[in-house]
Design a protein that fits this description.
Pfam families: EF-hand_1, EF-hand_7. By secondary structure, this protein is mostly helical. It has helices at 6-16, 26-36, 43-49, 58-73, 78-95, 105-114, 124-134, 144-155; strands at 24-25, 55-56. It has 2 domains: 6-70, Orthogonal Bundle (Recoverin, domain 1), CATH 1.10.238; 81-155, EF-hand (Recoverin, domain 1, Orthogonal Bundle).
Length: 156
């Protein structure tokens, strides 16, 4: 099942809500799942999944969609996620020169210069600005989570 945006899901919800009451019945939801090949569940199984509700409002529909994504993923991407996490940990170690679990602006500057990605005259000021952009706890350095967020945001 591919991921849809909030706006996509809202449009789908509005199309399913034929009477405009702000609710989608489980029959309509089951019809959608059947037509899109999203699931081969019975109406009773669907009721159990939505805890006995007979219809869903938009927020419940969005929650249902998210939960269906998690069920359908069923760990398929787990290996890929672990590989990315491992690669990021190795990259973090390259920048964490003193091994204290943090990347300072000095460490960043040193590694970027060694890699030829930072000009000699572009000193610590640029590196401090880079660190501050992703330093969510404002301690002046990047921990692994902040580094990971930076890398995910700049590569996606």
């Amino acid at each position: 099942m591919c991921s849809l945006t909030h706006n996509d899901l809202k449009r789908i919800f509005e199309k399913l809500d034929k009477n405009g009451d702000g609710l989608v019945s489980l029959d309509e939801l089951n019809w959608l799942l059947d037509k899109t090949g999203g699931s081969s569940t019975s109406l009773q199984e669907l009721e159990e999944h939505v805890v006995g509700k007979k219809s869903l409002n938009l927020d419940e529909f969005l929650f249902f969609y998210d939960s269906m994504l998690k069920i359908n993923d069923n760990g398929e991407n787990e290996g890929e996620v672990e590989e990315v996490e491992s690669d990021l940990a190795k990259a973090f170690e390259v920048f964490d020169l003193n091994g204290d679990g943090f990347i300072s602006s000095q460490e960043l500057e040193c590694v970027l210069k060694r890699l030829g990605l930072l000009e000699q005259q572009s000193g610590n000021k640029d590196c401090r600005a880079m660190i501050l952009s992703y330093d969510t706890n404002l301690d002046g350095q990047l921990d692994f989570e902040e580094f990971k967020n930076m890398m995910m945001l700049t590569t996606s």
